[in-house]
Amino acid sequence: MHTDEAGWPIKTREIHNHHMDSTIWNDFRFRDDDIVIGTYAKSGTTWVQQIVSQLIFNGQAGLEVAEMSPWLDLRIPPKDVKLPAVEAQAHRRFIKTHLPVDALVWSPKAKYIYIARDGRDVVWSMHNHFANANDLLYQLLNDTPGRVGPEMPRPPADVRRFFLDWLEGDGYPLWPFWENIRSWWEIRALPNMLLLHFAELKADLPGAIRRIAAFLDIPIDEARFPRIVEQCGFAWMKAHATKSVPLGGALWDGGAGTFVHKGTNGRWRDVLTPEDNRRYEAMARAELGEACAAWLAMDSFAFDLPQAA
């Protein structure tokens, strides 16, 4: 990771593909209280967006979270449309990214939250996401002018085949997985960075919400906290998915409820072979190191993040 003299990450490259245009960050004008929510993809992004929205707006129902919290580096709509819309927001902004750290512009004043999930769980959620996407999603990704690189293909019906292609192709057909995890793990000790695990939210949602609130310097209104917790729960989010899913779920067969699918881990256990799992785990250790690989693989735990050396 390249850093400046003060130790802050420096952007060293651009990433373009069927989804992304990282150059938008070069023109984004930060505010000191901005919140950036980072993930690889299908790792709890929407969940953290919901939590942050509930904390900012103190348990208000009916928030249009997908509209309020855009995926900034998604190339659709283009940056000349997206940037003015984000600039016009008057509330505390909370923005989503799927980029590795070295493709971002880093603000020392903003707050960054990164949430990660076991790669096998990521793939199972991703397969549901793209297998149930309709023609409109693929048309937008593949036919909108400005795409760099190959088209986004439809996934095979066999989820194990999809997983093996993803593993051998390092994130195919999306973007590299290991470098994304590794880049955020490496900066976990920065004072404006919070590292979360999907399993932490599942194991203790109220505790995770309080931890996020403390990091964002948002005081908890105890009278409204039970409502906040309820509206950040999976059942509530699935029932109100049109508010948190892009375009209200219009890009998926079955609508927004397909996007907010099951929120469960371990569905791969009955599908992947022992050899498949050994290959994944060996690759995780080689790419991430023992400490990060062990942390990423946790299903549920009393959260105790290993600190940077």
TrEMBL record:
Q: Which UniProt keywords apply?
A: Transferase
GO MF terms listed in the record are: sulfotransferase activity
InterPro entries, alphabetically? P-loop_NTPase, Sulfotransferase_dom
Which Pfam family is one of those matched by this entry?
Sulfotransfer_1
Which positions fall inside the Sulfotransferase domain?
A: 32-288
> Which SUPFAM superfamilies does the protein's record reference?
P-loop containing nucleoside triphosphate hydrolases
The record's family statement is: Belongs to the sulfotransferase 1 family.
Q: What is this protein called?
A: Sulfotransferase
Species, as recorded: Falsiroseomonas bella
